[in-house]
Amino acid sequence: MMLLSLFSLFTLTAAASVIPPKVSPASPASPASPASSASPAGCRKSLPKGQSAGKVSSINITSSGERRTFLLSLPPKYHPDTPAPVILSYHGNSRDAEYQLGLDRLTSPEFNSAAVVIYPQGIDEKWQGMPGVATDDVRFTSDILDLVQDQYCIDSARISATGKSAGGGLCNLLACDPELSSRIAAFAPVSGAFYIDSQPCRPESVQFPCRPGRKDVPFLEFHGGKDDTIAYQGGARRDECLPSIPHFVRQWATRDDLGTQNTTTAVSRDAVAYEFGQGEKAGLVKHVFDSVIGHDWPSTAPNQDNQREGHGVASYDATPMILDFFAKHALRNVRTCSGALGAIAR
Prior knowledge:
Strand content: 15-25%
CATH class: Alpha Beta
Radius of gyration: 19 Å
Shape: globular
Helix content: 10-25%
Structural class: alpha/beta
CATH architecture: 3-Layer(aba) Sandwich
Order of helices and strands: EHEEEEHEHEHEEEEHEEEH
Largest sheet: 12 strands, mixed
CATH superfamily: Alpha/Beta hydrolase fold, catalytic domain
């Protein structure tokens, strides 16, 4: 290990395919209450008709007056008396919830047998935060959580969010939102598209508005050095500005009061992890840079991203790293179904 400045750090050059499980037909749900709640209301309730542990269902919900949908994967170990963690996973631009389910492998028993995974569907396969998109997906997320916490036994201290590309950009909006940053424990975007409406575009200094509702927001970012969609060094795109990823990560480290010094470790032959913070805060902000992959979800197994022409499998898997990161970070002082207070785990 060695301690490097982020400026010098970022000058580096850089089994079987997953088949999504069959999705049950959409089941209607009542409009979610706009009020947030950490209530254990969903514990000890029977599952909605047609749903069972180990299965994926499509759920309808009304949000901001519009009919929206999301996929909900119940883990094999789900039990209505045992609070389960939740992971929100957002698809990329022009993709959909089923694509993301097959891509991230968060529902694979190899990696996850305990967490509920939610795959929201973007309107027109886009997300808030993209240039020209006016949809309130922050509210959509809040409404999903209200509904899920009301109907299922959820560990409200362990709700986390990840996403690919534009879905990763939405993760950043959630982390910066005063309400959602206080409901979601940790964030892990992959190849995030962090658009900022700022011209002229200065990738190394552009600032993005961010008002988290708490201190010490855990944030893990993955990016490839050969990403030609959301460039690692940032730049103008779609008439807005993408920050350089080193600058973006440095802003999160500064916001969490970690400074810009970091500890570096090798993840694989092509990837390096940069962790910010020391002591109990070690790794609170973390960035994984792979010098050879493009705009892909890093996986050593074939997936929908790395089987495209000009792409290939990675030398490491992002999914278990994301799950490990989520397992280390929980919200403080949140009541679970048992009435116990959720405590931060590091």
